[in-house]
């Protein structure tokens, strides 16, 4: 596969919407359009209210005959939001890229978790990138429980994308993808968006694929641009004006045009319509590799966090900070470590470029001990973290994680599979970190989803963190983290070669 067209061109595609050959717009115009697309549009509020009224009118019929155009809430924070338990309808959008290029030979499963005390019924509609065929399946997620489904069942070999529609709220989706080179997880999106950003992928040591899924009834036209550490902004003609028909998935193999880049920030902007985007990074190392699945973030932010980072002897941990803006950015990188103070670092990021910081090589920063990281800038940025394990470590030996932009007092943490039925043998939560980025101490309690006796409790000092080990939080049961103040969480999953190789930041829950 050499470009976006390898995902297939369906009946909804309109080739006339692509720009003429050789007519590559200037970088400034692309960046400017990204900014314009975020501005309020007159009359939008009235249109949204009308759409909500129509959705309520169709009611549960949409579960039997899915609505032609989903109308999810606007994306917030990282594009992951758990619908309130009393919601009449809710949707999730999941795509893993398994089965194509970076995911060749890989399979994917979606783990659904129900935070409510009642069973939630829904429908999964799955589309294949290789053609217009679709499969629809009824689903039930038990109260305070999980269910897993393999979306690709019944479809041709290749990448798939799924829309989950539920008669109620409180349900989350976690994608798990596994293959010969490793495995990874990422949350399903709870909303479509005209914009998605990624940072930390690479085309120099493996394959990097971008999946674009349009779950709506209207075609979308998408541009993808790429920031690099050398300061070059890459806008390959093949990735400009990509037309994605209604209910269509397109997978773009980025290494064909974004060649030999060690750290890439990907900027996806829809000129019309809205989509869902993920990246799948197949990473090669001298003694193994990894398979990293990353969900996009629907907007840049000035503050990004990682609740748990552990640099180990012989391994490597690197932050990639992308700056989509037209002016240089100064980013402060600070460390949270209970009972100790660590000197922060300042990272200068040129305009339209990526800058990296090898945190595992910073003198005076902990080696072998977990700490939290906060990256703050004076302008919006995109931050990812890549981890490479020591050569003698177990597989997978590499992974990429997007930072989180949200804080919450309550978090849902879902393991990489349903209890008793993991996609990856012996996959489980190995540790759970809770970081307090505030200026006052907080108390934290971890309980199984559905309640019961706390399985872990701690008090965290201002700016500190606590890491609960596998003896307390290990396994595949969903967990709820409750705190007396705003915190950030990160679950570290195994088996893996090093902490952070396979990790997830959880789902913020409404108060």
Number of helices: 4
Share of residues in strands = over 45%
How many strands, which pairing sense, and closed or not: the largest β-sheet?
Answer: 8 strands, antiparallel
Helix content class: under 10%
| Rg calculated over all Cα atoms | 21 Å
User: Which consecutive residue ranges, at least 5 long each, have pLDDT under 50?
Assistant: 1-30, 34-74
- Assign an overall shape: globular
Going by helix content, strand content and strand pairing, the class is mainly beta
Overall average residue pLDDT: 86
Query: Span between N and C termini?
Result: 46 Å
Number of strands: 34
Question: What tags apply to this protein structure?
Answer:
about 45% strand, mainly beta, about 500 residues, eight-stranded antiparallel β-sheet, seven-stranded antiparallel β-sheet
Summary, kept brief:
Helices cover about 5% and strands about 45% of the residues. It is mostly beta strands and about 500 residues long.
Structural commentary:
- This protein has 511 residues and is mainly beta.
- The protein has 4 helices and 34 strands.
- The strands form 7 sheets. Strands 25, 28, 29, 30, 31, 32, 33 and 34 form an 8-stranded antiparallel sheet that branches. Strands 18, 19, 20, 21, 22, 23 and 24 form a 7-stranded antiparallel sheet that branches. Strands 9, 11, 12, 13 and 15 form a 5-stranded antiparallel sheet that branches.
- A hairpin with a 2-residue loop joins strand 26 and strand 27.
- The longest helix is centred in the first third of the chain and has 15 residues.
- The chain is globular and about 55 Å long.
- It starts with 26 loop residues before the first helix and ends with a strand.
């Amino acid at each position: 596969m050499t470009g976006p067209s390898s995902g297939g061109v369906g009946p909804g595609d309109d080739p006339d919407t692509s720009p003429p050959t050789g007519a590559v717009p200037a970088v400034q115009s692309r960046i400017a359009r990204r900014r314009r697309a975020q501005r309020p549009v007159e009359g939008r509020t009235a249109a949204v209210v009308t759409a909500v009224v129509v959705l309520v009118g169709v009611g549960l019929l949409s579960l039997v005959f899915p609505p032609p155009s989903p109308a999810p809430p606007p994306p917030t924070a990282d594009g992951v939001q758990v619908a309130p338990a009393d919601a009449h309808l809710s949707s999730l959008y999941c795509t893993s890229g398994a089965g194509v290029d970076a995911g060749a030979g890989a399979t994917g499963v979606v783990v659904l978790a129900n935070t409510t005390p009642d069973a939630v019924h829904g429908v999964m509609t799955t589309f294949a990138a290789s053609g217009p065929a679709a499969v629809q399946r009824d689903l039930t997620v038990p109260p305070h429980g999980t269910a897993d489904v393999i979306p690709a069942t019944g479809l041709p070999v290749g990448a798939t994308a799924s829309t989950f529609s539920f008669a109620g709220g409180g349900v989350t989706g976690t994608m798990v993808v596994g293959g010969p080179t490793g495995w990874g997880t990422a949350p399903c999106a709870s909303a479509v968006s005209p914009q998605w950003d990624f940072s930390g992928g690479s085309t120099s040591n493996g394959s990097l694929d971008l999946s674009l899924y349009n779950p709506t009834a209207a075609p979308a036209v998408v541009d993808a641009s790429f920031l690099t550490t050398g300061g070059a902004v890459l806008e390959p003609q093949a990735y400009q004006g990509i037309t994605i028909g209604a209910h269509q998935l397109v997978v773009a193999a980025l290494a064909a045009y974004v060649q030999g880049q060690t750290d890439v920030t990907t900027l996806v902007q829809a000129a019309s319509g809205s989509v869902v985007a993920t990246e799948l990074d197949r990473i090669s190392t001298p003694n193994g590799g990894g398979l990293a699945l990353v969900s996009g973030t629907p907007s840049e932010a000035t503050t990004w966090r990682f609740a748990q980072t552990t640099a180990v002897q012989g391994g490597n941990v690197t932050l990639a900070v992308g700056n989509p803006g037209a002016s240089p950015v100064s980013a402060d990188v600070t460390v949270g470590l209970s009972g100790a103070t660590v000197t922060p670092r300042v990272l200068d990021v040129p305009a339209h470029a990526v800058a990296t910081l090898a945190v595992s090589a910073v003198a005076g920063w902990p080696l072998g001990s977990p700490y939290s990281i906060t990256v703050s800038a004076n302008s919006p940025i995109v931050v990812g973290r890549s981890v490479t394990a020591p050569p003698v470590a177990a597989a997978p030996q590499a992974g990429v994680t997007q930072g989180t932009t949200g804080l919450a007092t309550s978090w849902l943490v879902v393991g990489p599979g349903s209890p008793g039925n993991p996609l990856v043998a012996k996959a489980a939560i190995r540790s759970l970190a809770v970081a307090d980025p505030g200026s006052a101490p907080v108390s934290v309690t971890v309980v199984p989803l559905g309640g019961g006796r706390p399985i872990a409790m701690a008090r965290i000092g201002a700016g500190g963190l606590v890491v609960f080990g596998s003896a307390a939080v290990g396994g595949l049961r969903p967990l709820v983290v409750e705190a007396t103040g705003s915190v950030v969480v990160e679950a570290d999953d195994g088996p893996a070669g090093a902490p952070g190789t396979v990790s997830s930041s959880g789902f913020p829950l409404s108060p």
